[in-house]
Amino acid sequence: TLGRLLEAQWHIRRLPYRMRTAVLVTKTEHCLNEILWRAQLGELPVEITSIIGNRDDCRLIAEQAGIPFHHVEIGEDKEEGFRAIDRLLTKQAVELVVLARFMQVVPGWLCAAYKGRMINIHLSFLAAFVGDFGSLWGYFGISLGSVWVSVGDFGSLDGHFAMIVKLLWVY
């Protein structure tokens, strides 16, 4: 079955349930705006705990939405920046991390910490990876309107796309 193929884990929750979600962004806000809009409409069952940016560009959008914004510098010592992000996610008891055009490669240890709970909704980095992408779009891409959602671990960068995130919801 599909559940076995994806190694899916099932959670039964009383509805309505909104998953505690942090959104990671860089500069461009179109993916963030889409998430905020869909959450406001009730189409995405999420409670956005914060917006975390490695640049300050999306701060105004977060403030207008009434959502805390955290600027975390990811400079030459990327490890320090990602440790700061991890501390924020832990403090907020985040259940889901959404990379909304977050233009940084997330380290493997952070992917592992959020295994099954981290999605990337912008595939801007994938064109730089080697490997067979013919099957990628059909197998690892899920179309949600005009947004592509990828599920995986980009840590090895060798073209092997290891699935670490399970299907969370599909409308």
Structure commentary:
The protein has 171 residues and is α/β, with parallel strands linked by helices. 29% of the residues lie in helices and 19% in strands. It has 6 helices and 7 strands, in the order αβαβαβαβαβαββ. It has helices spanning 2-5, 30-41, 59-65, 78-91, 108-113, 134-140; strands spanning 19-25, 46-53, 69-71, 96-99, 118-120, 141-144, 147-150. The protein has a 5-stranded parallel beta sheet.
Features:
171 residues; alpha/beta; five-stranded parallel β-sheet; 19% strand; disordered C terminus
Itemize the secondary structure elements and their pairings.
Layout: H1 2-5, E1 19-25, H2 30-41, E2 46-53, H3 59-65, E3 69-71, H4 78-91, E4 96-99, H5 108-113, E5 118-120, H6 134-140, E6 141-144, E7 147-150
Parallel strand pairs: 1-2, 1-4, 2-3, 4-5
Antiparallel strand pairs: 6-7
